[in-house]
Specification:
alpha/beta; Helicase, Ruva Protein, domain 3; Zinc Finger, Delta Prime, domain 3
């Protein structure tokens, strides 16, 4: 079989490749029949040679080629004619792929193929005398597998399915909280599910279990954002916001966490105004851990108390707007832009 894994999630890719290797039988013999080729150090002839070699003392052979097609795609796009060396190489590769031994699996792992260009659509004539990847996939000569990281809308479903596959019972609220805390890091999510299942010891994992055992990986990024807000650094704040969005942070969750940080700033500023200066003492007084208190002691100096209270009021307005039809992503961006405006004199 010839496989194409485009834009694959690292964890899903590692599991899929492990499954292909496991299907080869005896691990010791399998190791002798697995070849991995780097796209920057290989070409069509090398790929076809390895993929055409018969298995050694085993029933199957596996050849994994990483980041080759994307580089070939770019070389073809940079060529001025369709008879360039890159086009010739692609023609040879696609023509000979169907002649590989049935005992061999060839896997292309890539993230740089542009579906608007010739490698995907075909080339060499008005309608493409050489079929591209799209035609090879539609004719089932190449199997395209979707192994991308689930987006924020799919993440809860992924967690629920992963738990079911592992015979782990988990409450719906726990699934949502785990998605919020960890984000789309599938390897960490799997590890956290195993840890939670061991703790739950046969009962269904609850939201309380998640709060107790799973650290909120977005909290550090939230503090980066509030750092930038307290400094009124718009560029840094937007960069921090985009970092959080890359982790697929839900806008309502972001608003909740930002409001929580500002409530901590208010409590810490109030304690400082009463003469407290020791972070551990203030942490005990405001019932927060020392780390956020230390951060808040630095950040609250950039605000008057009335400004902090006004920020919380603005959060309430944003929450109402988001719940009554405003675009949540846009509302968060507008909010961040407003909070980084220079202080009125």
């Amino acid at each position: 079989m010839i496989y194409l894994f485009l834009d694959a999630d690292d964890y899903l890719l590692s599991r899929r490749l492990a499954a292909l290797k496991a299907a080869m039988g005896d691990p010791e013999m399998a190791d002798l029949n697995v070849s991995e080729l780097a796209g920057s150090r290989t070409d069509a002839a090398d790929i076809l040679y390895h993929a055409g070699t018969m298995p050694f003392l085993a029933e199957r052979r596996l050849v994994i080629v990483r980041d080759y097609l994307g580089q070939l795609d770019k070389r073809m796009a940079a060529s001025k004619t369709s008879d360039s060396a890159a086009h010739t190489e692609a023609t040879r590769l696609f023509a000979d792929l169907t002649d590989l031994p049935a005992t061999n699996d060839l896997v292309f792992v890539d993230s740089g193929v542009d579906k608007r260009r010739q490698l995907w659509k075909g080339f060499g004539g008005e309608k493409g005398a050489t079929p591209g990847l799209a035609e090879l996939i539609s004719s089932k000569r190449v199997v395209l597998e979707e192994l991308g990281t689930p987006d924020v809308k799919q993440l809860n479903g992924w967690i629920a399915r992963a738990a079911k596959d592992a015979a782990i019972a988990i409450d719906g609220q726990a699934v949502q909280l785990l998605a919020n805390f960890v984000g789309p890091n599938l390897r960490q999510l799997t590890n956290e599910l195993d840890k939670l299942a061991a703790y739950a010891d046969g009962r269904s994992i609850s939201a309380a279990d998640v709060k107790l055992l799973v650290s909120d990986s977005s909290e550090g990024l939230i503090w980066d954002l509030t750092d930038a807000l307290s400094q009124r650094d718009g560029r840094k704040a937007m960069r921090s916001l985009h970092d959080l969005r890359r982790g697929e942070a839900n806008p309502f969750y972001l608003l909740t966490m930002m409001a929580r940080q500002y409530r901590i700033l208010i409590k810490v500023k109030d304690a400082l105004s009463r003469g407290s200066n020791d972070e551990n003492e203030i942490a005990r007084e405001v019932k927060e851990s020392p780390y956020p208190v230390k951060k808040a002691m630095q950040q609250c100096r950039g605000y008057r108390m009335d400004e902090l209270e006004a920020v919380l009021e603005r959060f309430l307005q944003a929450d109402f707007a988001m719940k009554t039809g405003a675009d949540a992503e846009t509302e968060i961006e507008v909010l961040v832009a407003e909070l980084t405006q220079p202080r009125a004199r």
